[in-house]
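User: I'm writing a tutorial on reading structure tokens. Could you give me a worked example: one chain, its sequence, then its tokens, then a sentence or two explaining what the tokens reveal?
Assistant: Sure. Here is the example chain.
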Amino acid sequence: MPALRVTKRASAKANPLPFVPVSDWSAVGHRGHGVQFYATDDHLIELLARYIGTALVTCEVGLVVATKKHRLALEKRLRACGFDVAIARRQGRYIAPDVTHTLRRLMRDRWPDEDRFKTVIGGLIDRVAAPATGRPPRIYAFCEMVSVLCAQGRSDAAIRLEKLWNNLAQSRSFSLCCAYPMNVFTAGHAAPFMRICAQHSHVFPAAGRTLGSLIV
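And here are its predicted structure tokens:
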């Protein structure tokens, strides 16, 4: 895995929504694993729309494992940007399984199971990476399963899941971004917070925060 990189936010002048600082998820690259910390859903959805919108406009694949609330907000934002999400879904270029259902399929005794992860997530990656004709598409993946686990107080399970994604990336090609709301972390969660950061090649702080101040 590449060395951890903390990405500074861009100038607000470059941002179409003045209240949302820019994190450049494109810095993650074709096989990176980034994490975004965020304070508001609006911030997350704007960043996610840029990320998945890039996949759709370049005829690649967007894979979004997210809550229903965030899936609906993302699709609304994409439509506002001129994307026909229904067509992309029919073409197999926009895949958005429910996070709770997907997470349930991966767990064995409340713990992420490696074999089930390979079957469910590895199998999904393999299917979307195998077009009927032409070159394999680049996969832009986004996953909230880890933040769901953290919100349940199960940070060890979230870290285990992050590691399973990293293991999968050794044999599959995809770009992955995870996201955690800042309200799941407090000063008492410094150790798991830093362990989560260590599983990623790129760390994007929440708006107006630095990495060192994220849990202060």
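What the tokens reveal: Residues 118 and 185 are 29 Å apart (CA to CA). DSSP finds eight helices and nine strands in the chain.
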